[in-house]
Amino acid sequence: MNHKQDVTITLESTQDGESMTLTYSGEWFVKEKSFYIRYAEQTELGEVRNLLRYQHQLLSHSRKGAVESEQIYALGIRRSGYYDNKVVKFELDAHTSKLRLLHFDEEMTDELPTKLPFTLEWTYDLFVGEQLTGQFSNRLIIQEG
Q1: Cα(137)–Cα(19) distance, rounded to whole angstroms?
Q2: Closest alpha carbon to 131 in 98, 90, 89, 103
Q3: 3-state helix, strand, coil in the chain (%, to 5)
Q4: pTM greater than 0.90
Q5: How confident is the model at residue 1 (pLDDT cuts 50, 70, 90)?
Q6: Where are the alpha helices (DSSP H) in 66-129?
Q7: Homologous superfamily in CATH for domain 5-76+99-123+136-144
Q8: CA nearest to 12, candidates 90, 114, 120
Q9: Residue 107 has what pLDDT?
């Protein structure tokens, strides 16, 4: 599958016990050994374009626009990234404790999804320097748009 498909993206996010759910329209496409999810969000600072790239046990998330950030999540590994809102820039580290892909609540181990719906889950601790700033758990549900 090298074509793009319109999708509805539901993001369920929990930070330090507080939950929120957001819904976006976007695109999903598979290219070689990765899949990509692209969507735009409106923040108080303006539009931010998001691109997520998943390959086996590795997720990268980049944001461009009013806010810019890059973060890589790798299971069991602490990886560096950054956050920049044009006023302040932080160097960040994320230590990922869960990263999995689900199709109808069954874990997909070695393959990429070839049809919708599917779910991507990741849980991580976020650090600024050596200071733990939060514990996050995200669930991204991808469905036909």
Answers
A1: 9
A2: 90
A3: 0, 75, 25
A4: yes
A5: low
A6: none
A7: Calycin beta-barrel core domain (2.40.128.20)
A8: 120
A9: 82
Q: What's the first-to-final CA gap in the chain, in angstroms?
A: 17
Question: Does residue 81 contact residue 95 with C-beta atoms inside 8 Å?
Answer: no
Return d(Cα 76, Cα 110) in angstroms, integer.
17
For CA atoms 100, 105, 107, 108, the dihedral sign is negative
**46 φ/ψ sector (left φ>0, alpha ψ -120 to 50, else beta):** left
Residues in the chain: 145
How do 78-84 and 68-74 pair as beta strands? antiparallel
Distance between CA atoms of 126 and 73, rounded to whole angstroms? 11
Structure confidence by residue, pLDDT tens digits, 95-136: 999 999 998 778 887 788 888 999 999 999 999 989 999 999
pLDDT of residue 55: 93
Q: What is the pLDDT of residue 14?
A: 97
pLDDT (tens digit per residue) in 53-63: 999 889 999 99
99: its two tokens = 């990263």
